[in-house]
Amino acid sequence: MIDITKVFNKVKQYESIIVTGHVIPDGDCYGSVMGLATTLKEHFPNKEIIPVISDFKIKFDNNLVQSVKPGVLSDEKIKQSLVFVLDLANTNRLDEKRAVDGACIIKIDHHTFERVYGEIDYVDSSSSSCCQIIAEMLIKKFKKLSVEAATYLMLGMITDTGRFLYSRDAQCFNTAGELVKFGAKLNDIYNRLYTQDLESFRFKSFVYSNFKAENKVAYIVFRKEDIHKLGVDFNYAAANVNLIAQIENYPIWISFAESDEGTVRVEIRSTRDYNINPLAVMFNGGGHHQASGCRLDNIENYIKVVKEAQNCERFLEHETE
Ligand SMILES: [Mn+2]
């Protein structure tokens, strides 16, 4: 467990406290930054508590703390502040680049340890999420959390565990249970997380009604006209190959997306029993055993890739690897 006395001695020492995380914040980063900042403001109302974070796709507003975007604070402000950096193993991907200039840095993270950059540098890679670490620290310190803070922290626990699909340890469920007890607004979180815009729904429905599954291979072909009609770009179309992932008896799945210039981006995926990298290499591409890609000059050549993929015995992964 993080040294709580040490952390809160630092909090007491500083009049202004900045809380930040990594670029392109996800639910865990947003939740831990806002959850910690909100709780600090509740307990230290006279201190200036400033969450610095880029936009996340959803926002839970509260009256206590307003987040600011990176680059907004003055250099002076940063130099005199205590800075919490959350959910980030190294400083390369800092949302607020100048956070390293803070008077004192406290890092709290759950990724594989990379390097020390905080005066207090706490990493627990067994924790499901940074939100879990923050929640456990704050519950230990204050015994209770506000509904707002519990909701922020629950958001990150939900998103980093894939709705608890990837959590295996009891501690994670215990902490999530505590957050529910404190009133975390589960409906709000799930409603906002899983609302989808009409365009992406139309895109999925195109994929589900137009994919083919033949001889161990599922695939989807996006021609230029389809891509225009769907209002997406060809990279987005190709990258969504996992919409047809893991259909029973179809261990290989492929997307083909034609660009305006006529070249085709191909994304190939497989279950762990197969290594489809050699298939991509056959068409001058590359990548990993279960995720590779290549390019074609002409969309009609998709059939060549499919034919090679269907001859899939030779791509079986050998157990020795
Ligand atoms: Mn995380």
Name the descriptors.
alpha/beta, inorganic pyrophosphatase (n-terminal core), Diaminopimelate Epimerase, Chain A, domain 1, single chain, binds manganese (II) ion, elongated, 2 domains, 37% helix, 321 residues
Task: Map the helices and strands.
Blueprint: H1 4-13, E1 16-20, H2 27-43, E2 48-52, H3 75-79, E3 82-86, E4 104-109, E5 120-123, H4 130-142, H5 147-160, H6 170-181, H7 186-193, H8 198-210, E6 212-214, E7 217-222, H9 224-230, H10 234-239, E8 252-258, E9 264-270, H11 277-282, E10 286-287, E11 291-296, H12 302-310
Parallel strand pairs: 1-2, 1-3, 3-4, 4-5, 7-8
Antiparallel strand pairs: 6-7, 8-9, 9-11, 10-11
The structure holds manganese (II) ion.
The site of manganese (II) ion has 6 residues, from loops.
Task: Write up this protein.
This protein has 12 helices and 11 strands. It has helices at 4-13, 27-43, 75-79, 130-142, 147-160, 170-181, 186-193, 198-210, 224-230, 234-239, 277-282, 302-310, and strands at 16-20, 48-52, 82-86, 104-109, 120-123, 212-214, 217-222, 252-258, 264-270, 286-287, 291-296. The strands form 2 sheets. It has a 6-stranded mixed sheet with strand order 6-7-8-9-11-10. It has a 5-stranded parallel sheet with strand order 2-1-3-4-5. With 321 residues, the chain is an alpha/beta fold. The chain folds into 2 domains: 4-193, Alpha-Beta Complex (inorganic pyrophosphatase (n-terminal core)), CATH 3.90.1640; 201-315, Roll (Diaminopimelate Epimerase, Chain A, domain 1), CATH 3.10.310.30. The radius of gyration is 24 Å and the shape is elongated. Helices cover 37% and strands 17% of the residues. The structure holds manganese (II) ion.
